[in-house]
Design goal:
By secondary structure, the chain is α/β, with parallel strands linked by helices. It is built from four helices and seven strands; from the N terminus they run H-E-H-E-H-E-E-H-E-E-E. It has two domains: 64 residues; 134 residues, Muramoyl-pentapeptide Carboxypeptidase, domain 2. Helix 3 links the parallel strand 2 and strand 3. The structure holds zinc ion.
């Protein structure tokens, strides 16, 4: 008897529970549906954000490695500056940055003053060439030039010339008087590290 009563109670309770669930079903469906919509929309907008980030990254990478072409004025200036110098055979101006054209102009005018000769042509002994520069050398990214200085008078005069070039170029550039007293004594003129994009390839 007791068992039957318990069974009856269980059946009644179960029935009530099922009825409650059926009554709540539309509400549960609506809540579930809303969760699904939020999930999909949220996921999609996250995806779009990722995609935009990806595009921005790609654009930056392309920009950093972009070949940059001199405009007509810069090209004329480049040719003019090269014409005011002599170049040792094998010197390669590949990638030379426009800022280095400006540096040539300064070196030329200092040499003119030092030699008291407005026709004097400094000899460029190295640009983007010669494997002897250090691996990360500014020479290999078109940001350094070497000028012969060993035939520019006494050591005192040569030091003065180096200092004049340094003073006239200002702090955007680094000027080193290298291999003093040796066959290869030269002025190394380069854009100061960190002031330019090493990946840009100038033409
Ligand atoms: Zn050098």
């Amino acid at each position: 008897m007791g068992c039957l009563v318990i069974a009856a109670i269980v059946i009644v309770l179960a029935t009530i529970a099922i009825q409650i669930l059926i009554a709540l079903l539309p509400v549960l469906l609506v809540i579930g549906g809303m969760c699904l919509v939020f999930f999909i929309v949220g996921g999609a907008s996250g995806g779009v954000k990722e995609f935009k980030k990806e595009i921005a990254y790609t654009q930056n990478t392309v920009r950093e490695h972009m070949v940059q072409f001199r405009d007509d004025v810069q090209r004329d200036y480049h040719e003019e500056m090269l014409s005011m110098t002599l170049q040792k055979s094998g010197v390669n101006f590949n990638k030379l940055r426009p800022e280095m054209d400006s540096a040539i102009s300064v070196v030329v005018s200092v040499y003119h003053t030092a030699m008291n000769d407005d026709k004097y042509k400094p000899l460029i002994t190295s640009a983007n060439d010669y494997e002897g520069h250090s691996e990360r050398s500014a020479h290999y990214v078109g940001a350094a030039l070497d000028f012969r200085i060993k035939d520019m008078g006494s050591l005192e005069t040569r030091k003065q010339i180096a200092q004049m070039v340094r003073d006239n170029l200002g702090n955007r550039y680094t000027v080193l008087h290298e291999d003093i007293g040796q066959e290869n004594e030269h002025l190394h003129v380069q854009l100061r590290n960190g002031t330019y994009n090493r990946n840009a390839v100038w033409k």
